[in-house]
Design brief:
Layout (H helix, E strand, L loop, with lengths): L6 E10 L6 E5 L12 E5 L6 E11 L2 E6 L5 H5 L5 E5 L13 H4 L3 E4 L4 E9 L6 E6 L2 E6 L5 E5 L4 E4 L11
Parallel strand pairs: 7-12
Antiparallel strand pairs: 1-2, 1-6, 2-5, 3-4, 3-6, 4-5, 7-8, 8-9, 9-10, 11-12
């Protein structure tokens, strides 16, 4: 049986586009071109085990991605897949350029000030249109740190350590 914890999300199946059962893909990856190389998708809903579907065609048209899946030949069949998440096995993650990180790799990293003070643990990453926001559990409160070079000075995934430089007023207990 497949273990859902062994997979990461890279997209969501969107709405139908044609009567033949074609569907749109909403990418959740910085590198949507990766879909072009995929011959099959693992689809999940909630925390269920992934199911495998074969890709028969993918079309890129003005930032819109449309996929045709084997055996999905009607709008009704396609609508059953809307909202499913496209996943890949963690071993098949794309190599990222320098200074890019998978959110799952950042979770549970300890966050330290540039003066060496432990601030807390990163608990989640919020995806925003301009930049991500790191959410750190700081003394039971949420410390929000924009994921930009002004604040994030170093990330060491192997040591599970993120070093940040904060400005006055960023800590939740500061007035």
């Amino acid at each position: 049986m497949l273990n859902p914890d062994d997979y990461i999300f890279i997209g969501i199946i969107g709405k139908t586009t044609k009567i033949d059962g074609s569907l749109t893909i909403v990418p959740l990856t910085t590198f949507p071109e990766r879909f072009k190389k995929m011959e099959e998708f693992f689809l999940t809903k909630e925390y269920s085990s992934p199911m495998t579907v074969k890709v028969t065609n993918i079309v890129y048209n003005n930032k819109k991605i449309t996929v045709k899946l084997d055996g999905i030949n009607s709008i009704e069949k396609a609508q059953e897949l809307m909202g499913y998440r496209i996943t890949v096995h963690i071993d098949d993650k794309t190599d990222l350029p320098e200074d890019y990180y998978y959110h799952d790799d950042l979770k549970e990293c300890k966050v330290y000030s540039d003066e060496g003070e432990e601030l807390g643990q990163l608990i989640k990453v919020l995806e925003m249109s301009s930049n991500d926001i790191y959410v750190v559990n700081y003394k039971g409160k949420e410390l929000l740190i924009p994921a930009i070079s002004q604040f994030v000075k170093e990330i060491d995934i192997e040591k599970r350590k993120i070093t940040v430089s904060l400005i006055n007023g960023m800590l939740p207990d500061e007035n």
